Structure formats: structure tokens, C-alpha cells
Amino acid sequence: MSLEEPPSDFRDRAKRNYEFVKNEVVTEEKRSILSEYQVTDFDSVLLITSAPRGGSSLLFDILRHHEETCSLDGEHDRWFTLNGICYPAFESDVIPADFESFDRERLLTDLLAEVGATDRSGDRTHRVDNTLIRLPLQFPDRDLPYEEIHEALLDGASLDEILGELGLSPLQYDEYADRDATGPFKTETIEDRPFVSSHRYKRALTADDFERTLVLKASGDVYRLPWIREQLFPETEINVVHLTRNPAASINGLYDGWRLNRGFQTYGVGELDIDGYDGSLWCYDLPPGWDSAGKLIDVCLMQWARAHRHILDGRDAFENVLRVRFEDVLTDTRSTVEEIVEFADLGESALLSENVESPNKVMTTKEPRHARWRDREDLVRSALDRADETYTEVIEELGYTEESEWI
Questions:
Q1: Residue among 245, 216, 256, 211 nearest 233 (CA)
Q2: pLDDT of 194
Q3: I need a labelling partner for 115 at 20 to 30 A (CA). Which of 30, 100, 126, 203 fits?
Q4: Looking at the domain assignment, is residue 55 inside a domain?
Q5: Tens digit of each residue's pLDDT (9 = 90 or more) over 56-69
Q6: Interval 227-255 mean pLDDT
Q7: What's residue 86's pLDDT?
Q8: In contact, 95 and 223? CB cutoff 8 Å
Q9: Residues pairing with 116 in the sheet
Q10: pLDDT on residue 83
Q11: Is residue 96 part of a domain?
Q12: Is the pTM of this model over 0.85?
């Protein structure tokens, strides 16, 4: 997850070290792919879009187990941040559809940097390469011994030992993203910890893999859908899954996440005066019209409502959009996933079927439990009672007017 816009020297150092790792450190096979291909070379893209804490990490993890897919190890926001396509270059996470002032060729290559193909056999070398690819973004203030780290990992050394020897906290790395730190992470970084880390059923790309479907998801995409269609993938077949979740559960999850030190911090927007939050950094997406003051529970409601409002407004940029309820993903996983697989024309996958039977727990703020929001029902209801017209319109359009369905 990207933090505040770093000073130019931090981003420049991150770029320099990333380019060194990409061109000199990772395996020759990966270097070859990155020199000859870009992310737009995939035949099709399956884009999962949802408000934060809407269940997209779990759905992404399930779908990337399909053996006809390729995917990044997590969200792709860090590559936009590395290229300066983020706040404060923009006033919020919204990227105008006609924004062209960026190095498109570079961004398309960067987005491919850690993509792997799903394969039952997996490939540890691919995971090691991706570890090195991300280190310059997670620790941009350090010129690390990347070649030595790469060799040590290939030889079987553990990452936490290597980071410890370098005086770096392993809690700032994605492999440990389900644990809380004792305090907020430093702000001078391109990427903190992705919502989803790699799994063992991935291997390095080959030329034939570009005939597969690339699965992408980042909650910030809700504010850049027309731009993604018109500027990034103007000629690519894109199937969009709009994942919804009832407002109470999502707002409750956001409220939890704001109060944890687990990599949900995103931007340094100046002094915050948010009742219920004692941190110094904004968390999750930055909607248009955001305010640095108010009640935390109201901020969470705003993030849910405006995210879905932008999806509903931006969906017309795409021909193929499927709306899916996260509640159905939880209660009827197999048939819901089958619907998505058919929509994306992925075909059958034994590995996917096995994962559907026993999905992973992915970036949960607390132990999953139906209707957990009722633990702070009075607080949630207080926000719903104050909600504006945007919220009212969204719950009606999404069909969440029956509270009995809010699990």
C-alpha cells in the first residue's frame, strides 16, 4: 500500500534501486520477459473493483488460484506511486480519464514486474525475484546489498533473518502483513505492505502465458476506472467484477483498519483532527471531497459510499461488468465463483476448486464472523443516520435496503 507522496529524492532512489534490481539482480529469465513484454500483452484482464474492506482481497486470492490466470502478488497501487500518479499530484485518488502526462511505456512494464503465472508446481525462484523487486519500494531510504540478498534467499536463508541483520523490521514486509506493529510505519516509502502476498502456486512468466487472463485488483481503482480503460488498456478485453458488500460490515472493517498499525496507512495529508483516530496518516482510499476533521465512523461511511458511487458512474467505460455480492462469496462460495469464472470465460481449474473448498484468510482485521459489525452497532447506526444523499442512492442502487441481509 502506498504512503504519502515521498520526497523526490526518496522516489528517485527507489526508482534507481528498482531499475538496478530489475536489470541486474533478478534471474535472466525474468529480465528477458520484462525487456520484451508489457502488461498490455495479455489477451484479457479480469478487474476486481470494490470499496476498501469489501472482500476484494479474498476474492482476488481465490481467483488467482485458477490455472488459466496470471496475477501480481498484491495490489498494484505502488507502481502508480512510483511513477508519481497519485496524491498530491492529484487532489484525491481520482485520476481524470484524459490524464496523459505520464510515461506509459514505463508504467506498463512496471505493472508487469512481479506478475506470475498460476501453476500447481510453483517456482520458489519466482517468489525470490519478486521479493527483490519490492524491496526498493518498501525500503527506499536504504541502498541494500540486493545481489547478496538474492543469493542468500535462493540458498534458503529466511527473509526475517536477512532483514534483521540489516536492521530492518520484518513487520514492514508483506510476508508478515497479518500482524500489527507497535506503531505506524515510517512515511518515506513507496509501498508499505501489499494486501495480498504471493502464494506457492505461482511461477515465472513465459511467452505463452500472455494468452492467459491477468487478474488485477486495487481498491483505489474505483477512482480511475475510465482512465484505466482509456489510457492503460484501450485495446485489451477487460471484464470487470463489481464486488459489493453491505455498508455496515464494510464501515466496521474500515473502522478497525484505521485503528491498526498494519499497513493500511496511505497518505500524509497534513494535520488530522478525526475523532476516534490518534494516528497522523490517512488510511485507505482518498475520496474526492475528503476532510481532515470529523468523526472516524463518518469518514469510513464516506469511503464506502463514494467508492461505490464512482464504480456505478464509471462502469459504462466497460462493456462487460458483473456485479457480485461478497455476502454470496461467503455463503455460497462455489456457485458464486463459478458465475465469475463463466463470466470471464476461464474454464475449469482443479486448483481453483480445491481453494474454493478451503479459502485462505486474507488481510482480515479480526477473526471473520458474520454480522461482526453489530459489536459496535450503535456507533455504526449513528453514522448511517447522519448519512447524506450519496449513501442513500448507493444502497438503493446496490440493493442493500434490507438490513436482514447485512451479514
A1: 216
A2: 47
A3: 100
A4: yes
A5: 999 999 999 999 99
A6: 97
A7: 93
A8: yes
A9: 71
A10: 94
A11: yes
A12: yes
Nearest one of 403, 398, 363 to 52, comparing CA atoms: 363
Phi and psi at 73, nearest 5°, equal -75, -15
Q: What pLDDT is attached to residue 46?
A: 98
Per DSSP, the three-state class of 299 is helix
* Three-state secondary-structure class, residue 66: coil
145 vs 163, which has greater pLDDT?
145
Predicted pLDDT of residue 8: 59
On whether residue 1 sits in a domain, the answer given is no
Single-letter amino acid code for the residue at 303: Q
Total structural domains within the chain: 1
Structural domain includes residue 3: no
Give the burial class of 347: count Cβ atoms within 10 A of its Cβ; 0-12 exposed, 13-18 middle, 19 or more buried.
exposed
pLDDT in tens, 15-52: 999 999 999 999 999 999 999 999 999 999 999 999 99
Look at residue 74 and tell me whether its pLDDT is greater than 70. Answer: yes
3-state helix/strand/coil string of 314-336:
HHHHCCEEEEEEHHHHHHCHHHH
The parent domain of residue 218 ranges over 8-405
How many angstroms separate the CA atoms of 117 and 214, rounded? 9
Q: DSSP E strands: which ranges in 25-154?
A: 44-49, 69-71, 116-118
- Which phi-psi region, left, alpha or beta, contains residue 312 (left: φ > 0; alpha: ψ -120 to 50)? alpha
Largest CA distance in the chain: 58
- Written as nine digits, the cell of 391 is 449513501
Residue 268 belongs to domain with CATH number: 3.40.50.300
- The sheet with strand 213-217 has its strands ordered as 202-203, 116-118, 69-71, 213-217, 44-49, 237-244, 320-325
